[in-house]
Amino acid sequence: MRKRPFHTRLRRRQAGFTLIEISIAMAIMLILGVTLILMLQGHVRFLEMFRQQAFLSAEAPKIGNLLGRIMNQADHFFVYATTDDAMAETDPILTPGTAVRLFFKAPDQVTTSGVIAVVNDAGDYSLRYYSQPPDDTQFWDISTRIEGANFLSDQGILSITLLGPSGEVITYHGSAR
């Protein structure tokens, strides 16, 4: 058996990777890349669903709690077509409106009132409670994340229907005490 020269043996050891080894490495990297992209897409879908459900899981219970507390104090109410009508106490309606005026009787038998209204500020809707006596300057926001709302009085029951940012429809019902 004849020995090969030393420089030939060195060249074979330093020749690098074979085509099969490179192909396997590239296939593994491709599989890992596709897997990471699919995982990222799944994560983005989950975050989108979570964002859409945030209104129902976080904002809607707070709105219901606040509306319940306010309605439990009211003695009677009237629905109005607009916030301005409710502020001026003109022309209550029986059809759905965008404002409701609530009347509260204090222990000394003095009646005060407040207004809950849907306000559209350049396309941004909010549900506001105007102080007693109602005016345009003193209010607090019940919610700024709604896309619309309406109020309906039917046989002494007030229905408040809210439209959420992802098309959710939530209806609260209440009556005066």
Features:
three-stranded antiparallel β-sheet, single chain, 8 strands, alpha+beta, 177 residues
Query: How many distinct helices?
Result: 3
Task: Note the run of SSEs as H and E.
Answer: HHEHEEEEEEE
Which structural class do the helices and strands define?
Answer: alpha+beta
Number of strands: 8
Low-confidence stretches: none
Mean pLDDT score: 85
Rg measurement, Å:
33 Å
Helix content: 25-40%
Would you kindly provide a brief summary of this structure?
This protein has 177 residues and is of the alpha+beta class. It has three helices and eight strands.
Structural features, described:
The chain is α+β, with helices and mostly antiparallel strands and 177 residues long. It has three helices and eight strands. The strands form two sheets. It has a five-stranded antiparallel β-sheet. Strands 6-7-8 form a three-stranded antiparallel β-sheet, covered by helices on one side.
Spell out the blueprint of helices and strands.
Layout: H1 6-13, H2 19-73, E1 76-80, H3 83-88, E2 99-105, E3 111-121, E4 124-130, E5 139-143, E6 148-154, E7 157-163, E8 169-175
Antiparallel strand pairs: 1-2, 2-3, 3-4, 4-5, 6-7, 7-8
